[in-house]
């Protein structure tokens, strides 16, 4: 066979395979991957010859000397339908055995090969680190829970050392876990709190290209002055001092080169490790490590994007800081990898004198409570490292990579909770807490009320110490299986961190007394004559339209009831999703009934003896020919129902509860 004929045959074959694939996918009514559909059609095309040869061999050669009638034509149509049926069967069986999306396609597999190899090397490195620090059994789900304080301290130290050796992502993970007093024992909280992310600074030769690319030119053109010696260096970024051309002193925060790829790879590993631990260990399921990993991944991705931090700074700076100063971002110079902000001049807050401590602690508490309860945008990590004692004697609040947000309903629920705690009313505290967190179906409310009453008696009585108050509150929340929403968990985490910071600023600081003073000032502001008048005017403006319509509606209802015409209009299936679900279910039932009916009629017709002859060569009657066609139609309808059944579990996303 010469080359032109070979090319023509190849083109015709490819066109026929594509047509066969399109017909099979169209009849099934479901979209498949191009590779899967083409392979199914190619396999069906290769099987078509051996399967149809025994059927077509008895037919005479079409030489035009004799009239063969329409029987062979109908049989040929039946053969074509059978050929189309082959890729449909292959696709349905493949969907049942290897569901779509369960394995990557060839192109995706080739594209991710390098990442898989890199991840495998990182897996090996992390495993060696874990084994070196004695954590190997815990990764395999065989580690025993320490029975005494000494064992817990030893395990916590091993975990801290392993996380420290793991690099930036794992150090950040340990720092986040060190604030989750609701999940981890005190030994782990104390040990993980020692993690530090201070590392050696990157050389200027590697940082300068990042600045040039993000700022659109050399630093000499953008800034009037720029100190190339880093002011500070952390695991994700390092900071430099500079002066704008307008004369303002600023701090330039630059993300480390290549840190994005490293964090993305490690986050993928953290997610996979969390899935493994949750599936293999009881403590992993108890802690919900998969949800923890997802929340951590979201937080660290935001921390990598300095545009998010700039927006957070602007949102917090818009609120009243009281005695706390926030740096202002220079929006025109803030990008994903560079953050330029006002420079606050001062020294570490730990350098404050004992005389300054109480005032600074009071200002910080007032600032954070106002952010949480009034503004709804708050700094979620107020530890001493994020605070400065400015030259004018006030506090400066830094690092807005972690900021929480509360809507009006969440703020109102938290206000009721804190006010009920101030009144030391266990019943009101329990009701308010169950408004803040989702209410479980099987919670023992009397026992929770007693636990909260004991908690308040321990911490809120006159002259009692409020240290570790939020830690004990976390224990109660955890022991009763309450699922804290992420935004509320951020509030409790910030308050727990604030508790330690206040004690460090001013040992013996009376947290509850100062919180009550803030509540008094806040309530006086809320019940100020002007505020009350404005609130009443707003409520009245919202109620007036309804009040104007209310008499007419009451009169119509009363008249209809008096004359026996009162009725209810209910719209069934008003939701589009409900209508779609019911329509799809009816379609499946209809296809099943039609397929079963066609199959039953085919069996009956194939069992009938006699009848008009459709093909003398095959000895096939008309009833048999119709029966075979109905059998093929029945198979098509049944395959269409089966493919919808196999696809349904992935079309309906699983609902998960965040904790």
Automatic annotation (TrEMBL):
Enumerate the transmembrane spans. Answer: 6-23, 35-53, 73-94, 581-606, 626-646
This protein's superkingdom? Bacteria
Q: Which InterPro entries match?
A: ABC1_dom (IPR004147), Kinase-like_dom_sf (IPR011009), UbiB_kinase (IPR050154)
Tell me what this protein is called.
AarF/UbiB family protein
Keyword set for this entry?
Answer: Membrane, Transmembrane, Transmembrane helix
UniProt domain ABC1 atypical kinase-like: residue ranges: 194-429
What the entry lists under SUPFAM superfamilies is as follows: Protein kinase-like (PK-like)
Q: Describe the family membership recorded for this protein in Swiss-Prot or TrEMBL.
A: Belongs to the protein kinase superfamily. ADCK protein kinase family.
Name the CDD domains for this protein: ABC1_ADCK3-like
Natural source organism = Nonomuraea ferruginea
